[in-house]
Amino acid sequence: MTQPSAVGGLASSVAGHEVTVDLGLRSYAVAVGSGILTSVGPRLQGLGFQGRCAIVTNDRVAPLYGPAVLASLRSAGLDPIVIEIPDGEAQKNLTMLSTIYDRLLAAGLDRSSVIIALGGGVVGDLAGFAAATYLRGIAFVQLPTTLLAQVDAAIGGKTGVNHPRGKNLLGAFHQPRFVLADVETCATLPRREFLAGMAEVVKYGVIRDAALFHDIATHSDAILAQDRDRLVAVVAACVRHKAAVVASDEYERSGARAVLNFGHTVGHGVEALTDYTRYLHGEAVAIGMVAAARVSQALGACGADVVASIDGLLRRLGLPTELPVPRAALVAAMTSDKKSTSGRIRFVAVETIGRTRLVDLSATEIVDHL
Ligand code: NAD
Ligand code: GLY
């Protein structure tokens, strides 16, 4: 599925990887490399896009990467407008979506136009949902600039906005036409955001790839120092896993995609109970992964060594692992998560590093095993 390729062709770029998300007619490439952001114009030209297009970004990312992306698109004959929104998860709502529609209409984007999401998961989810719905759906491309978006949010076609009653309650599956992950953008990420992304990286190791898990442990210093080759290899490995899971269960029906929720049941509960302000998503997932491992051990699915390995690696990466909320409060928080069906939660239990199983549990059963 992965072939090394000279993506970008810039003097400063290092060899990249190209991963295909195999979805028949909706298949697309994910380019992963370092110094490849400015190849976006030629890549879009190669996909047949021309004329009017829109970059959706935010006021933090725009000054850092907007000029390079604009120049690349213009050099390839595209005519971009820039829709710059304020930073923050609070912007991921219907009001901001409506503002984006207004700008797209005013600029005359038509059914052949493309929307380019430049930013983290917030920008990607919003821009993707705008693309899913504008004129009943137009093309979009993801240029993820956070580690979390590069390994997770930008791939797989989940788009949407939040509702006052919960996160990501409104949305659509709409696959991008192309994803370009330039790990060099991680250099400007706040340290805490980078580490939160590492929690999702560790997740892929736990659920599918013992070698990746052990590589992260062995080379944690180089990864934390953002050694470019190491980071490209790690992001590409995660992208391959996400692509394979999405290709096997695009709409999260068979259960295969549910494995990506490892650590998220308790993680979402922790986020909700701390008003989505105390922890970044990845930090809550780190706590949730250790909790999930403990539940797995109590169920007899894995041994104490597995719990200790996950806990040890996350701590080494500077991530929290202790449950910060009362167990009893978690029951209600987990029951209201949108992934629970009729009171039963499809819980991802770990058997060994690299292998999981799904177990149907109630929130009370999960908490009882914590
Ligand atoms: P984010 O988009 O809020 O980005 C985190 C912070 O980093 C923001 O302040 C952002 O402006 C800033 N930033 C982004 N790139 C930067 C860069 N290169 N340099 C400096 N600062 C930069 O958060 P996130 O963690 O990327 O994504 C979280 C969002 O993604 C949530 O809304 C979540 O629901 C969503 N998500 C979606 C999926 C999916 O499958 N669609 C999966 C996981 C998460
Ligand atoms: N982030 C989980 C998924 O894409 O399914």
- Note the beta-strand portion: 15-25%
Over all CA atoms, what is the radius of gyration? 20 Å
Report the count of strand segments. Answer: 13
Describe the strand arrangement of the main beta sheet, using strand numbers: 1-2-3-10-7-6-4-5
From the N-terminal CA to the C-terminal CA, the straight-line distance is: 38 Å
Largest sheet: 8 strands, mixed
Bound molecules: nicotinamide-adenine-dinucleotide, glycine
Mean pLDDT: 93
| Structural class by helix and strand composition | alpha/beta
The low-confidence runs, each spanning 5 or more residues with pLDDT under 50, are 1-14
Share of helix among residues? 40-55%
Give, in order, the helices and strands. Answer: EEEHEHEHEHEHEEEHHHHHHHHEEEH
Shape: globular
How many helical elements?
14
Structure description:
This protein is an alpha/beta fold. It contains 14 helices and 13 strands. Strands 1-2-3-10-7-6-4-5 form an eight-stranded mixed beta sheet, sandwiched between helices. A three-stranded antiparallel beta sheet has the order 11-12-13. Helix 2 links the parallel strand 4 and strand 5. The chain is globular. The N terminus is likely disordered. Bound molecules: nicotinamide-adenine-dinucleotide and glycine. Glycine (GLY) binds next to loops.
